[in-house]
Amino acid sequence: MFDPIIILIVLTIAIRESVEGLPFGPQLDTAPLTGFLLGGIAAIIALAYALNALAVRRFDATGDGRMVIRVYRIDRLAKAALGAHWLVCTLWLDWVGLSRDLVGGNLVVIDEVVAAAPALVGLFLLYGLTHPIQTRLREASMARWLDEGLTFSRPPGFWEHTLETVRHRALIILIPVLVLSAASEAFDRLFASIERSSQWFSESEWAELLPQGLYLLFALGVLCLMPVALRLLWRTSRLEPGPLRDRLESMCRDQGVRVRDILIWHTSRGMLNGALIGVLPQLRYILLTDGLLERLPGEQLEAVMAHEIAHARRHHLPWLLGAMVAVVTICTAGLWLLGRLLILGIEDVEQRFFWADVVSGVSLGVALVIAFLAFGYISRRFERQADAFAAQHLSGVRFTKPIARPVDRCPVISGPATEAMSEALATVASVAGMPPDRFSYRHGSIASRRQAVRALACLPALRLPIDRVVARLKLAIAVLLLVATGLTVLQIELEKRDREAAKRQAIQEWMSRPMLDRIFGAGPEMRP
User: Fold this and answer.
1) What is the value of pTM for the model shown?
2) Which residues contact 192 (CB under 8 A, 6 or more apart)?
3) CB half-sphere exposure, 278, CA atoms < 13 A
């Protein structure tokens, strides 16, 4: 659903802001650096579209299905090249600093938006790369849809396809990031002003924790309200009352899941997908695309709906967020503790602060890479459990709150249940023009998911292997959260001691100066 390149762009800017020693490379003038950045992005886009045109032309001439896989491979490689080019311009060269100079200083969010704009525009243009092949695959399916008596709309044009992809893959990340970044900078400046004007506040124990606590509450509020924003951002409408809505609402009740509403997700019938958004039941929505409602037969539609219900029933989103917090915290705090042992041996205060910033930035980068890999691993297991939950539901298993015990006991997963879920996955991939073997970072491949679902047939419905795997995974996440909490408390205490030691050292160095130098010179430099 989200694009990892956008996360890379955002996090790179955050690392650049937090490490004073960056960038590591030469300081280029405005014209050369701008030309290198824009020229590199243009070259990547031009080469990607040229290679894509060759693959599509060969597909038209021969019908070779390998060309479809090649198009998606070109898409991935072009985005990876764009991300690598961005890293060079940001961490090696000083594109972020140059952008700040262009807008006239460190303005709240504005300088970051200007810095990220070229890379984001380049990424958005790459979103149209798969449009030609997807259009051909969709047109090839229209004859079958006509035979089945299904309605269809014209394939979206290039710009319509690109803008829809931006809405669904980019804005879902960019909007909360912009809001949270603006809030973070505003909180920092507000409390820095209060600290400068109030000695009592600056010396209080909670002066550092208060802004962090308020920002955390603000971030949680943004997270809770995001479903409302997504409902407006994506084209949605309420599923009208009728037999279908009654059936879907009955599924939610049977499985003990509360939702605010069931919505139709309008995608010009070009996407077969479902989504569950929201953590709080009062702000939780289930979205089903218009193509999904029109093209899937009743049992397959019920399987997709059960898959989305499973994410709420099994509390996947809170566990996934908890895992990310734990992994990032453990990696950053752990590497900080290791780096601290080396940094404390540096006698020069400025050098010590410099290397502390470097260690902080490197640890954050390493933590985010590990978190990215962990997110994909955990997400794919959760998706497998949701697929299995759909098979359980179609086999007659019902769960009610607060105790997750089935109301209708069923000895085994039925063959028709696994076949319905498997065919639903195949239909979704077919309409999307997605090769069954294509690997998805968050979901795995359609082929592997179908194989896993079919393997559930005749297994005990209440003792599925994937449920045991996820149970162990959740236990590991809980342990990691406890470790992360302990490391955070230890880091806060050690940072407090280091600041006090640095102040004492600065005062001692100042006191060791000659008397006249102390009288007429500057006071001791104490970094907060």
Assistant:
1) 0.77
2) none
3) 21
